[in-house]
Design brief:
By secondary structure, this protein is of the alpha/beta class. It has helices at about 15-25, 45-50, 60-65, 70-80, 110-120, 150-155, 200-210; strands spanning about 5-10, 30, 50-55, 55-60, 80-85, 95-100, 100-105, 125-130, 135-140, 145, 160-165, 185, 190, 215-220, 230-235. The strands form 5 sheets. Strands 2-1-15 form a 3-stranded mixed β-sheet, with no helix packed on it. It has a 3-stranded mixed β-sheet with strand order 3-4-5, with helices on both faces.
Length: about 240
């Protein structure tokens, strides 16, 4: 496969080299330094360290002040605006899914800068009860598969392209992983951190991939599917 140089894949700095090497066959990769002020389970996660929405990258100011070179490098390479939040850390603050023209997240649990920027970019907020809405969702173009039953119930009323798949069998440093944290999709291909056959409901995920004609790549076939904070694919600045 020819490397698709118009996208940058942002992954956890703790991702094994074998997984990064396989991903780098298709995309340039980038990792942010772990945040020593966070719990170890969250310190490396891309879906905790920053939140892309519209044409902006949202970081906590405390993180940017600690790692200015890394943050500015990501902004420079993507050409995206930096928005700095004064909010204290919470693992839920930016944990939302952006799908079609919807922002899916728990009411009152998101960064105000995130919701404001999403609204300015044309997204309509859909409140759900799940604490970790973003981690629970794997967005694949116009399709979405989620391990959150409330998310599925809410979005299924809007589209048949929403599927439900429990996350049992996904490994995480927290003990229980999330589907969105264990994969990422770009250009019609889903990249998995490990082998989804470790999931109890792997057949449901397989049918989802087949139904929407999605290719997939196992970044490491020798390990169970692992939640590493997902992959954030960002367009590189032209």
């Amino acid at each position: 496969m020819t490397k698709k140089s118009n996208l940058l894949a942002v992954v956890s700095a703790a991702a094994p080299q074998k997984e990064r090497a396989r991903l780098e066959r298709d995309y340039e990769t980038f990792s942010l330094p772990p945040d020593p002020s966070l719990p170890p389970a969250d310190a490396h996660r891309p879906d905790t360290l920053f939140f892309p929405v519209g044409g902006a990258l949202i970081f906590r100011r405390a993180y940017r002040d600690a790692f200015p070179d890394a943050v500015e490098s990501l902004a420079d390479r993507t050409g995206m605006r930096l928005i700095l939040s004064e909010s204290p850390y919470s693992p839920q603050l930016g944990d939302a899914a952006l799908w079609q023209d919807l922002l899916i997240g728990r009411r009152g649990a998101l960064l105000p800068e995130f919701t404001a920027e999403a609204k300015a970019a044309g997204y309509t907020t859909v409140p759900v009860l799940e604490k970790f809405s973003g981690r629970a969702c794997l967005v694949c173009g116009d399709a979405l598969i989620t391990s959150g039953w409330g998310i599925h119930k809410t979005l299924r009323k809007r589209s048949e392209n929403v599927w439900f798949c429990p996350a049992e069998g996904i490994v995480s440093s927290r003990g229980h992983g999330f589907l969105g944290g264990a994969a990422g999709e770009a250009d019609g291909t889903v990249y998995f951190f490990g082998d989804p056959s470790s999931m109890e409901y792997a057949e449901t995920l397989s049918r989802f991939l087949d139904h929407f004609m999605l290719d997939f790549v196992l970044l490491d076939e020798g390990h169970p599917l692992t939640d590493r904070g997902g992959i954030r694919f960002l367009k590189l600045k032209e």
